[in-house]
Every structure is written in C-alpha cells, then in structure tokens.
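Recall the central idea of this unit: under ordinary conditions, the amino acid sequence of a chain determines the structure it adopts. In this exercise we apply that idea directly, starting from the sequence alone.
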Amino acid sequence: MTSTASQSIANPVKYDPYDLVLNADPYPAFSAIREEQPLYYNADHDFYALSRYADVNAALVDFKTFSSARGAIIELIKANIPIPPGVVIFEDPPIHDIHRKLLSRMFTPKKVLGLEDQIREYCAACLDPLVGTGNFDFVKDLGSQMPMKVIGMLLGIPEEDQSIIRDFANDQMRTEDGKPMKAAEEGMTTADNFEAYIDWRAEHPSDDIMTELLNVEFKDEEGVVRRLRREELLTYLNVVAGAGAETTTRLIGWAGKVLAEHPDQRRELAQDPSLIPNAIEELLRFEPPAPHVARYVTRDVEYYGQTVPEGSVMLLLLAAANRDSREFPDGDSFDIHRNIKAHLTFSAGRHLCLGMALARLEGRIALEEILKRFPEWEVDLANAALSPTSTVRGWDTLPATF
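Accordingly, the structure predicted from this sequence is:
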C-alpha cells in the first residue's frame, strides 16, 4: 500500500482523485468531507471541492463563475492547454450552445426510442452464447460490447473497427496511481482514425450522425453561416464515441456488483421488470460513472466563510452530492423504490448530458435481458478489476457466476 493510501485511510477527511486505493471506495471520504469540510481544500494538488447537493447543483448551473472552457478535469485546467474546437463538455456559452444545438438533433426522443429493438438484439447476441456456461463478465461480455455497437451504428463506424475507437477513448482517460492524465502534458488529441470514415462517408452518404454532421449548416459565434471544419468534426466524433459508450459500460458493471450485494431487490426486479427504470436511476445515483467534474473559477466566491480566489480549480463531487442525506434520505443505502427527484450523475444546467436518454434506454434493456437469462448471480471480486482512471469510476472486468 502506498504512503498516500495509508494517509487517506488514517485521515478520512481527505480526497485525492489520483489515489487508486482511496477511489476503490471513496464514500467514507466523501461523507467526512461533506459533513466536516463542505468547502474542502486539497493542498497537495491545489484544488477546492464542493460536496453538498445544493452547492454542487448550484455550481453546475452557474457557468459564469464555474467555467468549463479550460476543461472539466483538474490537470487539464491547470495545464491551460488549447482545447480543440468541438469538445462540447469543455466549452462555455455562446460557443457551447451552438455546438450543443448541432449535437442535440442526434439524440431526439424519437431517434433514441427507435433504437430499442436494435439495442435488444445486441444484448441478446452478447448474452445468449453464455446461457448454460455458468459464467458471465458484466463488462467484458456486455458492458464494453453493446454500448459501442450502438454508438458505432449511430456514427456509421464499421463494426470491425469499433473496438479501436473504444480503446482509444479508454486510453485517453487512464492514469497511473498518483499521476495525472497524459493529456495534461501531451495535449488533447483528436481521433485521427476517424479521418478515413469521414472521407468515405462524404462520398457515400447514409442515415447516420456522420453524414448529418458533414452536411449540417449553422451560424457560428462570429455570425458566419458555414459547415463544420474538419478538426471540429473529428473532435465531435471523438467526444460522441467516447461519451456514448463510457457511461453505459460503467452503469452495467455497477449493476452487476450492486445487485449482487442486494439479492432481495434483484429478485424483485426479476419478478417485476416494471421496477427496472427506477432501479436504473437509483444505480446512477448510488454509483455514478463519473464521480466528479472540475471547473475553473472566474471570480472570487465565498463558501462557508471562506474565499475561493479567482483562478482556482473547483472539483464538484457529484458522487458525494448524490448521497447527501439532505436531498436523499439515508443516501448511503441502495433502494430501487426510492423516489428520486434529480440526481447529478448527468450534471445540470447547460451541460446536462445530451445522451442521458440513450444511456437510460441501454441500461434498462441491458438489465431486462440479463435478468431474463440470469436472475441470480454472485460476483467474483477477487478476479475483478477497477479501471485505473481519475476521471471516471467503474470496472474493467467484473466476472460473475450463476
């Protein structure tokens, strides 16, 4: 165990996003921070953090004070590196609103609901070969497969190349224990492996997102009516491909672990699938795939009698806010019957996740199809592996037996 990890355990009023041991179970630290230091400061990495639901929700909405324009990850903000045009989650209005409007046409309710049969087919293709084997890995066998097939279909990426795109997105977020993302030193890269798809689709248009983005015209922040530049299009595709697969992959992994730990509630879901949509919301609240987001502080701001100076980095602890008993009574308990008004897993305000309807649909169908085939399972935590990343939290592999 590293000395950093030892200190974290000895002093729970500490949160270090780069400490892999602490991040295996950050909730004791989140609880201590939320109750004892609602404005938390980490001197080692020089960032502030908010953890109470009301504070985090208000900060997410206040984009003028808490800016996304330098990125939403601590080390990217500190590095102050150029952000490629089109990284919507790393933008402020007005450019954010222009880019978001372009992307929003891909995730209309009609388009998302029209994917249900295809998503169910993808799940069946992943799960049916496992029936009778006695073994199932929630991530390797389904979580890392189905969401990428869906987003690949939407983007028009050939199935044989989808794993390359997925692995590229994953590699961008991986970190070593105690170290920040490589992008902070090397800069953000665009997925150049989309180049060939863009060229091919330009000559062979189809009913997919890539064709739509190639041809859409819009008025930019300078008032010029134009199409997306090539670098913007590359970034768009990179963002959609990565984000489109990441959340559902993590959600499916956490569903496997959390429901194994709550077998009575799992049996209720198997017996009454109408409970599954609310169970998905509770899973998203209880184990959010992204435990936090960062913001650049544009002006001095006061919290709990202390000043957070302009130029600081503020970490918004979504996972801590999601368990705040002020908003969610007995927040550390998992309850598929909980009345959830609004968790913060999909953010809030201008950056409310565009793909949340798709993630919810994929999560619901995945859980329905899993429970049809495997109503009971035990997870093999001894052979499971958490992803080594400071930005998202979930499983690289989560084997189970049934």
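The chain is about 45% helix and 10% strand.
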